[in-house]
């Protein structure tokens, strides 16, 4: 997979999380989700479009391309795994777990994510061990 900046990965993940079924995401919703301005979001969407990760019609909805969906799904999976690990295993509150997961998802290896998932499966099977 092509390497993106942390910021671009976050924008792509926002499109993924805000899209559902046949509905895409809107610039205003992405900006709100990320806590940034609409012009910043428009600029990021132009970059992601140039990279072939989204389709973006002016004043319309934004949709992930198959390549963009694969990339965003991978990033989102990392985020959710880390957040779940922090909340269920380390007993952190949602806000802390979510904030930390967002920062860590960009640098953690797939091997570490797999180890977290394996640990949580084993822990759920034998929580007292």
Structure report:
With 129 residues, the chain is mostly helical. It folds into 2 domains: 6-68, Winged helix-like DNA-binding domain superfamily/Winged helix DNA-binding domain (Arc Repressor Mutant, subunit A); 71-125, Diphtheria Toxin Repressor, domain 2 (Orthogonal Bundle). Helix content is 66%, strand content 5%. It contains 6 helices and 2 strands, in the order αααββααα. The chain has helices at residues 6-18, 27-34, 38-50, 66-89, 94-104, 110-125; strands at residues 54-56, 62-64. It has a two-stranded antiparallel sheet. A hairpin with a 5-residue loop joins β1 and β2 (62-64). α1 (6-18) packs across α4 (66-89).
Note poorly predicted spans: none
- Placed side by side, the strands forming the largest sheet appear as 1-2
H/E series, N to C?
Answer: HHHEEHHH
- CATH H-level superfamily of the largest domain: Winged helix-like DNA-binding domain superfamily/Winged helix DNA-binding domain
User: How many strands?
Assistant: 2
In round numbers, the mean pLDDT is 91
Structural class by SSE content: mainly alpha
Q: Give the % helix.
A: 55-70%
């Amino acid at each position: 997979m092509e390497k993106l900046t942390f910021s671009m990965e976050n924008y792509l993940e926002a499109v993924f999380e805000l899209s559902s079924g046949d509905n895409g995401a809107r610039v205003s919703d992405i900006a709100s989700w990320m806590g940034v301005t609409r012009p910043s979001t428009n600029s990021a969407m132009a970059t992601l479009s140039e990279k072939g990760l989204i389709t973006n019609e002016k004043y319309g909805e934004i949709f992930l391309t198959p390549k963009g969906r694969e990339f965003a799904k991978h990033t989102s999976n990392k985020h959710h795994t880390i957040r779940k690990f922090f909340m269920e295993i380390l007993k952190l509150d949602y806000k802390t777990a979510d904030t930390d997961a967002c920062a860590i998802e960009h640098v953690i290896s797939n091997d570490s994510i797999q180890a977290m998932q394996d640990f949580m499966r084993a822990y759920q099977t034998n929580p007292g061990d």
